[in-house]
Design a protein that fits this description.
mainly alpha; 0% strand
Length: 67
């Protein structure tokens, strides 16, 4: 799943335009910050989905065992 977050973050970065009079170093820092933020957000969503899915599966299994 890590590759998905990486690819999406790169897509977002490719859509980022340089600000007028923005220095190379500042633009690079901003792109890196955008990349990291997107990747971390997507990784968090994926992790939450996996946790929710695991919890639902465990609850269903326990419910079946109790009946």
């Amino acid at each position: 799943m890590d590759n998905i977050s990486h690819e999406i973050a790169l897509i977002v970065c490719k859509q980022t335009t340089r600000l007028e009079n923005e220095r190379d170093k500042d633009f690079s820092k901003r792109l890196y910050s955008i990349y990291q933020s997107c990747k971390n957000t997507i990784d968090g969503v994926i992790e939450q989905e996996n946790t929710d899915s695991s919890n639902a599966s465990a609850k269903a299994t326990l419910s079946m065992m109790n009946h």
